[in-house]
Amino acid sequence: MTYDAAKHHRLVQALALYVASLGAAMLTEWLSVLPGSGLSLWFPAGIVMAVLVVTPRHIWLWWLSAGAAAELTGNILWYHHSWGHSAIFIAGNLLAATLAASGIRQFVRGPFFFASLRRTAIFLFFAAGIGPMISATFGTVALSLSYNQPLLRAWPRIFLGDATGAVVAAPLALFLLGRAARRLSWSRRRILEAAIVIVAFAVIAAISLGSLFPFAFLMIPPVLWSSLRFGIAGGVAAATALTVLTIGLTAIGISPFFNVDRFDGLNHEAMKLFLLVTNTTALLTGALCEEHRAAVRKLFRTNMNLENQVADRTDRLTESEARATANANLLTAIGEACPDVIFAKDCDLRIIYANAALGKVYGMPAEDIVGKQDSPMMLISEEYAALRANDEHVLATQQPLIVEERVTSADGITRVYRTSKAPLYDADGTLSGLAAVAIDMTAVKKAEARERMLVREVEHRARNLLAMVQGLVLLTNADTLKAYKDALSSRIRALARTNGAIAAADWQGAPLDQILRDELAPFDDGSERISLDGPELIFDPATAQSITLVVHELATNAAKYGALSVGSGKIAVRWDSRMEGGDELRRPARMLHLVWMERGGPPVAAPQHAGFGTTVITTFGEERPGGSVQFAWDREGLTVIMNIPLNSEMDAQSASLNDLDLV
Q: What is the C-alpha separation between 208 and 205, in angstroms, rounded?
């Protein structure tokens, strides 16, 4: 056979319960022989009930068997009831303990049975109410059968004895088993208080119980004090001490409950009722104290948790505020450093944030704009209407919007902004306004307009250049193919140089002095044989191309036949512009006066027929109304005097880019 440690352990526990129940039964038998009617306090049922309450149901048979064995032993040793009557007593006591323990376990949950007023009340209801009713009923039946005692007289006496025994024995047993309540933490102060309570308890007990006068009620204050100060432990200790003192002093015949005449033969019932009331009061008061202490501990823990939470939330709030401040400073710094316009508006279109760039647009500090609306006083009415319509569209649709907006700033310049607007929401998701970033696109728009103009200009000049090249091809004459190629190539190269100068000036035109220097550069040996004198004049591309051919023909003719054909020849070119003419019918016109003078070359004479060069020069000078060209074929050298009206096309090249169409 194998050794079953658990079974052996339960057997030892059952034996201990048997001894405890037998001792309690012996105490009951001893009390029953007290003077008078006998004191029947039944303690064994309370002990068994306490053990059943704290142990699993599947081992209850062990404890019930131990209790039954103790009662049978007591019947053999002291009671001497018949076996049938004894069986009724035992059945009633065990059934009462079982039903009371089952009821307590059903309604009381948790490790400690006196931790609250509700649990203690339930415990007393079953331990001092339901259980004693059952055992008293069985005991009354047994007594009526064995001793012919009246039921109405026997039942209350047995009920009081069983209820008082259960109220005394069961809490003490649970306390010894460690299931009554939490352990006390004994400090020096608490030990001193316990000693004072014991001394006071003994003194009051000597006064109230150690005489034949009915001063037993004086024991209530120390009992209450013990329960209130030390909780359920003090209540159980006070109830036990009071029970021992009351029974002991009654047994020796000096307590108020010893006098039979005072209670009309019910002195022991009065004592049991006194013990039942005081013990119940002690337990309820102790439970109330435990509940209060638990509530205080819970409140303390809750308060500590709240303090920790508050401290934690305060730290987090402080940290959040610091982060928010840092983020706000960062965003403010970014907004102030950003050259683009950044602003935000509420649902009433009042500006709630504006960076310095917006302040520059309105010509006032950004802080002076905050809280105000865009208004016709700040903007041109058409611009204000367009901006407001875009803002209202974003608020109505709650959708982002990218749009181009025109704003005339405080300096009077109209700028084009590419504005991105988006709805703005608060923390709970409610629409609170809009935020926007506006990028100044004025320079881009001007560049685009300028590019479009240049494209149109290039297209126009290309057609003109092709027409001019076509004219060169048709008008160039030569005796040989090689001479034809050379003449045509030089003229086309002259046009190419001028077009290069025009392109370098973004197709705005070419200056006259640069045209002259480019055409005369091959003949300038640094000996100052070529001199140029005149103000700076910029020709439009068409005029620059035409005058380039004129200068090219003059330079080519001088190189072949005139001053540049010999080393001693010189050329002087002088020009100026002036306002001339004008009457009631015509406005004054700006005229170019240019003189080409050759000296030091071979003698010259007027040609017999007009060649290509003469035709180009004459056509350039005379094709414009009021223009003229004069040739002086002197022996000292050729002189050409040109008076050319300058059309408005050249003046347009100096117009401001602000006049360009930006759309």
A: 5
Pairing relation of β-strands 530-533 and 570-580? Answer: parallel
Residue type, 164: T
Tokens of 310: 């508050």
Indicate the Cα dihedral angle 516, 517, 520, 523, nearest 10°.
160
Write out 101-140 in H/E/C secondary structure. Answer: HHHHHHHCCCCCCCCCHHHHHHHHHHHHHHHHHHHHHHHH
- Give the model's pLDDT for residue 621: 72
List, edge to edge, every strand of the sheet that includes 341-346. 351-354, 341-346, 431-440, 414-425, 401-408
CB 267 within 8 A of CB 258: yes
Q: Is the pLDDT of residue 576 over 50?
A: yes
Of how many residues is the chain composed? 663
Q: What is the DSSP string of 498-549?
A: HHHHHHHTTTS-EEHHHHHHHHHGGG--SSS-EEEE----EE-HHHHHHHHH
Contacts of 290 (CB under 8 A, 6+ apart): 112, 114, 115, 116, 181, 182, 231, 232
* Residue whose tokens read 């003949």: 523
Give residue 148's pLDDT.
Answer: 64
- From the number of C-beta atoms within 10 Å of its C-beta (0-12, 13-18, 19+), residue 446 rates as middle
Q: Please name the residues in contact with 212: beta carbons below 8 A apart, sequence gap of 6 or more.
A: 254, 255, 256, 258, 259
What is the spatial distance between Cα 585 and Cα 299, in angstroms, rounded to a whole number?
109
Give the CA radius of gyration of the chain.
Answer: 64
Cα–Cα distances (Å) from 458 to 315, 448, 472, 499, in that order, read 70, 15, 20, 10
Neighbouring C-beta atoms of residue 273, cutoff 10 Å: 16
Position 347 confidence tier, pLDDT thresholds 50, 70, 90 = confident
Q: Is the pTM of this model over 0.70?
A: no
Encode burial over 191-226: b for 16+ CB neighbours within 10 A, e otherwise.
eebbeebeeebeebbeebbbeeebebeebbebbbbb
pLDDT in tens, 124-136: 999 889 989 998 8
Torsion on CA atoms 555, 559, 560, 562, rounded to nearest 10: 90
**Burial letters for 103-121: b for 16+ Cβ neighbours within 10 Å, e otherwise?**
bbeeebeeebbbbbbebbe
H-run or E-run covering 610:
none
Arithmetic mean of pLDDT over the chain: 77
Residue 98 has pLDDT above 80, yes or no: yes
Q: Regarding beta strands 628-634 and 637-645, do their DSSP bridges make them parallel or antiparallel, or are they unpaired? A: antiparallel
**Do residues 220 and 206 make contact, with C-beta atoms less than 8 angstroms apart?**
no
